[in-house]
Design brief:
alpha+beta, 3-stranded antiparallel sheet, Lambda Exonuclease, Chain A, 4 domains, 394 residues
Length: 394
């Protein structure tokens, strides 16, 4: 069996789901969320951008937005699930357009490196006997200069992951193995994530020792999967998006009988939410970007569930979490009247003609230096925006 990052992740997420999808080859009713749909359309548009550049054709930003809109309209269907129903389909489409516009403005005229291929497929052996094989598709493979390669991956996550997730991410590290196999004399392989929601590029790399360890870890994981005989279910908040939910023994009774009370059902959901959250927070599984994205969605789900129950405390099997509301200050949009007033006020207070960079890091340090309390901030910097955010604590 040829493995991939997604195939291994499916087993880690839920062995029973792995069995249904890859062994029994069950063909379920297709399920797609608006977030997945948005990500697919954005990836298609960026693929077009670089595929056309390989053919010496340069698209304008208008060309790409028109392409994205056509792809969106041609493929959108009413069955797509919108979990955050306080957002409209149009708002999601506008978000996708903003991702493309920001990316285009940042990297035009796209000559920072030479694109070698898009949706680059690789298939490699992890061992000399070629018993363990893994494959993948790289969003974009580029060469900065001879022998120096870059693996570009596009993410539409709504939150930036901490550095530890970048450094321990497995997916692009597997891609590095694929590039190293194709270019054995590569001097350097850079892993580059584009977090489009923030118009931010983050780079990382892996040492020779780290890649060797990754190979051994993958072989061990594949052995674990191949030796599995029971394939147990592993409930989590991801069950809400699982295409096999109606035939899963963990959930199918909810679809076939009404004997269980709604209260008991909700308690089961609550316990699963909290238990899954604890597992991720405590790092009982390898920390990776895909798990961080899951953690982000899990927090959203828990906050929504708590709001529905009109509570601030959720209880799992062995832990309890509390949801609190915090007020945070946000810098106005750069160049706006409020931003100009804020910059002027800070210069007056600090007696400085130039501020190195007006961002949240600087603002936090500035407020700390002033030893201001909340009322002092409101009085001295009324142009700051205040937003309420939810925080989950164990």
């Amino acid at each position: 069996m040829i493995y991939s990052h997604s195939r291994i992740c499916t087993f880690e997420q839920c062995p029973y789901k792995f069995k249904l999808r890859y062994i029994d080859k069950v063909q379920p009713e297709e399920v797609e969320t608006i977030e997945t749909f948005l990500g697919s359309r954005v990836h298609e548009t960026l693929e077009k951008l670089y595929r056309d550049l390989l053919e010496k054709k340069e698209n304008t930003i208008e060309d790409l937005i028109c392409y994205l809109r056509k792809q969106w309209d041609d493929t959108y269907r009413d069955s797509i699930i919108i979990v955050k129903n306080h957002y409209s389909v149009e708002q999601y489409r506008m978000k996708a357009e903003r991702y493309i516009q920001d990316y285009y403005k940042t990297f035009y005229p796209f000559k920072q490196e030479k694109t070698l291929s898009v949706e680059h497929h690789f298939l490699i052996s992890l061992d000399e006997s070629e018993e363990y094989k893994i494959q993948g598709y790289i969003d974009r493979l580029a060469e900065r200069k001879p022998g120096y390669y870059e693996i570009h991956d596009y993410k539409t996550n709504n939150r930036l992951p901490p550095p530890k997730y970048i450094q321990s991410d497995r997916q692009l590290a597997i891609y590095a193995l694929g590039v190293k196999d194709k270019y054995p004399y590569a001097k350097d392989i850079r892993l580059i994530w584009h977090f489009l929601a923030f118009n931010k590029k983050i780079e990382s790399t892996r040492t020779k020792e780290e890649l060797t360890k990754l190979k051994n870890d993958l072989i061990h994981l594949i052995d674990t999967i191949e030796k599995e005989e029971i394939y147990p279910t592993r409930p989590s908040m991801l069950c809400n998006w699982c295409e096999f939910k109606q035939i899963c023994p963990q959930w199918s009774p909810l679809y076939t009988t009404k004997e269980r009370s709604e209260t008991n059902q909700l308690k089961t959901v609550e316990r699963n939410l909290v238990d899954r959250y604890i597992a991720l927070k405590q790092g009982t599984r390898q920390q990776r970007l895909d798990l961080y994205a899951e953690l982000e969605e899990l927090e959203i789900e828990m906050i929504a569930y708590a709001k529905k129950k009109n509570t601030t405390v959720l209880t799992g099997s062995n832990h309890t979490v509390k949801i609190t509301t915090q007020t945070q200050y946000v810098i106005p949009e750069k160049g706006s009247d409020e931003w100009i007033l804020l910059l002027k006020k800070i210069k007056e207070i600090t007696n400085k003609e130039e501020i190195p960079k007006l961002d949240m890091t600087f603002l936090t340090r500035f407020i700390t230096d002033q030893k201001w309390k909340k009322r002092d901030i409101d009085r001295n910097l009324p142009m700051l925006k205040k937003v309420k955010t939810k925080r989950i604590t164990l």
